[in-house]
């Protein structure tokens, strides 16, 4: 049970989540995204094993954004009709305003936690393999992405090395954030030069191993669709229907 | 005998260059032969190899004249990928020839390319792992393995295709001498088991022993400018004092000192902490202990990592040194003063880096693997560069795997193993202490071996 979301076929999960997001985009009341958000969290609590501390850390910017939406919509709303529900100083907040604000911020939370659910329960390599096997992604693109993924740690090492070499030269860390951003250019140029060389070598190595980019006739690591996927898709749909029809059972 | 690779009057050049890289080249490789192709850097060795496995001319739109026959058929008549099933290649750089995470996935990737049926894959993977003695690494993450292990994995990936020909592109250049020798022995055994044809390119044949049947030289073999054992320029006053330097988790407490004008070589197995020690000495990574003087010069394996400006002149003067012009003259940099430091040759980049360090007032220079992948001419240039500076009173600490180079250059040798400095040895008697060298994955230089043989 605790592994269900991790075991789910990544392509199926991807499609299910896309459908949910697309549907959510058509609801403008505050309750639908709210109920949906809570439901996503419940799913995540019961069907996955993730590091909640890390989750909170990743959610933090989204909480800030959500609050930002909430506040700006309240203060700068155009439509100010409807009964006033809340007054602070000389600001009068109407029901319509409040609903808009809540709707926007819950939507941010719902979308971000849904994305994080995907990110935290999916292995990138399995995702690519599954895209290739279920959704017929071209092997050229799939393996290209995969090689890029293998290079990330190498590039990170190189970045640190260049940074260290520059520090030795006495290129002082700029205080000003903008200047520091411009300073990164000096690190990126040698890195890009190296990356181009590495990319060419990797491409040659792949070709020398007989990779031509054509479809493969069989896979060593088969990513299949099973019962778990059917059950989870049904579960996602139930959650979606429940939150879309909240008007019927909440009032 | 069967002719496998046949070049007849082959000329090749890149589309945007006038100069022919290969000109009127004819050669034949027979089945079961072990052939080495040698020649200095830039003479077209790698190009030749890429013509054999048909990465060229298609991938670079190069211009090709003459005929190349592979397995008796014109090479352009093969469909893409077909030739790569029969001729497989191991490349030079162990870091950029893999595209999957684990060894098993990497091997499976090769089999998928060959359209092997899934039921057969398992069998072939275990087979090749047993053959190459790599079964223990089956589920290892490739990027976490050492250079030598990666090179063996790359070879296993080439062998799983059951090729008729194995091409090797300087496979030893990133390995320490002992690991390199082990690799050669291992390859020797494999070749006998599989009776493949092996074509390798290599500019240093010392480590291969009598592995090859035949060698083909691409440029008429100009005797490489030899460097003799240099006279020590070590002076009496101390210029570098390292006291109890250690870095977290790996580098043990290290204490040693170097004199002015001394050239010391730091050697040891792959992954023994040599680079870490250099970085700790320049305070690039957090470390405890004390280093005197505070300002040390450091030249990484890729000298361009150091460059911050747009011209060689600015680069040398970046630290605000006063004697920039003098440095430029001494290191013969005036001819390239206005060039972009990224655009000059590798040897020149290193020259610029050293000039910049010296004009910053850094009188002790630490160099990380300056010899790896360098041909004889480049080594001679490097030797001269270091020798001249040392005579002027600069102190050097150089990490290298090249024992011939170390033997000719070093006044003293620092040996390292498992993050711990074993000791500082005066060059001389230590070169014939085979046990000591073997413990540090090193081999005695040829000259010493030769002398030993005469005495025996």
Structural commentary:
The complex is a heterodimer of chains A (251) and B (456). With 251 residues, chain A is mainly alpha-helical. Chain A has 10 helices and 2 strands. Chain A folds into 2 domains: 4-123 and 224-250, no CATH class; 139-208, no CATH class. Chain A has a two-stranded antiparallel sheet with strand order 1-2. In chain A, helix 3 packs antiparallel against helix 9 (227-244). Chain A is flat. The two termini of chain A are 33 Å apart. Helices cover 31% and strands 23% of the residues of chain B. In chain B, the strands form 4 sheets. Chain B has a 6-stranded mixed beta sheet with strand order 14-15-16-12-17-18, sandwiched between helices. The chains are: A mainly alpha (251), B alpha/beta (456). Chains A and B meet through helix 7 and helix 8 of A and helix 3 of B.
Number of helices of chain A: 10
Q: What is the ordering of alpha helices and beta strands of chain A?
A: HHHHEEHHHHHH
Structural class of chain A: mainly alpha
Computed Rg of chain B:
24 Å
- For the terminal residues of chain A, how far apart are their CA atoms? 33 Å
| Total strand segments of chain B | 18
Report how far apart the termini of chain B are.
41 Å
Number of spatially distinct domains of chain A: 2
What general form of chain B does the structure show? globular
Mean pLDDT value of chain B: 88
The largest β sheet of chain B comes out as: 6 strands, mixed
């Amino acid at each position: 049970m605790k592994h269900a979301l991790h075991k789910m076929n990544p392509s199926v999960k991807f499609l299910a989540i896309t459908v949910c997001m697309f549907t959510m985009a058509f609801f403008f009341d505050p309750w639908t995204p709210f109920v949906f958000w809570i439901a996503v969290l419940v799913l995540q609590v019961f069907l996955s094993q993730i590091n909640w501390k890390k989750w909170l850390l990743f959610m933090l910017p989204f909480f800030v954004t959500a609050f930002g939406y909430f506040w700006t919509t309240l203060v700068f709303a155009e439509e100010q009709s409807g009964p006033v529900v809340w007054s602070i100083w000389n600001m009068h907040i109407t029901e319509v305003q409040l609903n808009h604000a809540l709707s926007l911020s819950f939507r941010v939370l719902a979308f971000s936690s849904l994305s994080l659910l995907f990110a935290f329960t999916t292995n990138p390599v399995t995702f690519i393999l599954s895209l290739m096997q279920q959704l017929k992604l071209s092997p050229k693109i799939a393996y290209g992405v995969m090689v890029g993924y293998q290079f990330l740690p190498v590039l990170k090492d190189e970045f640190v090395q260049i940074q260290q070499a520059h520090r030795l030269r006495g290129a002082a860390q700029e205080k000003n954030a903008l200047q520091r951003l411009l300073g990164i250019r000096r690190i990126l140029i040698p890195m890009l030069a190296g990356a181009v060389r590495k990319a060419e070598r990797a491409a040659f190595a792949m070709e020398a191993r007989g990779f031509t980019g054509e479809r493969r006739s069989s896979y060593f690591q088969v990513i299949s669709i099973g019962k778990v996927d059917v059950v989870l898709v049904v579960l996602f749909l139930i959650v979606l229907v429940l939150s879309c029809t909240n008007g019927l059972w909440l009032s | 005998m069967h002719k496998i690779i046949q070049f007849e009057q082959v000329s090749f050049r890149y589309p945007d260059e006038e100069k022919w890289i290969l000109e009127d080249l004819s050669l034949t490789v027979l089945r079961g032969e072990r052939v080495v192709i040698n020649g200095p850097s830039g003479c077209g060795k790698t190009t030749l190899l890429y013509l054999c496995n048909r990465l060229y001319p298609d991938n670079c739109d190069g211009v090709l004249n003459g005929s190349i026959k592979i397995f008796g058929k014109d090479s352009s008549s093969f469909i893409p990928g077909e030739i790569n099933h029969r001729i497989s290649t191991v490349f030079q750089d162990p870091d950029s020839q893999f595209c999957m995470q684990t060894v098993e996935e990497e091997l499976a990737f090769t089999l998928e390319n060959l359209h092997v049926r899934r039921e057969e894959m398992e069998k072939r993977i275990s087979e090749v792992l047993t053959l190459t003695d790599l079964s223990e690494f089956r589920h290892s993450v490739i990027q976490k393995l050492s250079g030598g292990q990666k090179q063996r994995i790359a070879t296993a990936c080439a062998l799983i295709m059951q090729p008729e020909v194995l091409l090797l592109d300087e496979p030893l250049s990133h390995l320490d001498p002992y690991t390199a020798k082990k690799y050669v022995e291992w390859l020797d055994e494999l070749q006998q088991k599989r009776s493949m044809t092996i074509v390798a390119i290599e500019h240093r044949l010392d480590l291969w022993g009598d592995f090859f049947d035949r060698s083909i030289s691409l440029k008429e073999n100009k005797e490489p400018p030899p460097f003799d054992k240099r006279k020590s320029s070590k002076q009496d006053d101390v210029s570098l004092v390292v006291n109890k330097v250690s870095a977290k988790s790996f580098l043990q407490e290290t204490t040693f000192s170097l004199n002015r004008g001394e050239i010391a070589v730091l050697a040891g197995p792959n992954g023994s902490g040599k680079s870490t020690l250099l970085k700790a000495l320049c305070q690039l990574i957090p470390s405890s202990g004390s280093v005197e003087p505070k300002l040390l010069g450091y030249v990484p394996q890729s000298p361009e990592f150091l460059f911050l400006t747009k011209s060689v002149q600015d680069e040398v003067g970046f630290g605000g040194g006063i004697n920039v012009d003098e440095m430029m003259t001494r290191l013969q940099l005036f001819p390239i003063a206005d060039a972009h430091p990224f655009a000059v040759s590798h040897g020149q980049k290193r020259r610029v880096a050293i000039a910049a360090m010296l004009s910053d007032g850094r009188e002790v220079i630490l160099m990380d693997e300056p010899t790896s992948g360098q041909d004889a001419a480049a080594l001679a240039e490097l030797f001269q560069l270091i020798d001249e500076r040392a005579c002027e009173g600069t102190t050097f600490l150089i990490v290298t795997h090249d024992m011939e180079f170390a033997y000719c250059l070093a006044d003293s040798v620092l040996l390292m193993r498992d993050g711990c400095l074993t000791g500082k040895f005066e060059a001389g008697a230590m070169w014939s202490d085979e046990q000591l060298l073997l413990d540090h994955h090193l081999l005695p230089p040829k000259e010493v071996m030769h002398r030993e043989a005469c005495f025996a």
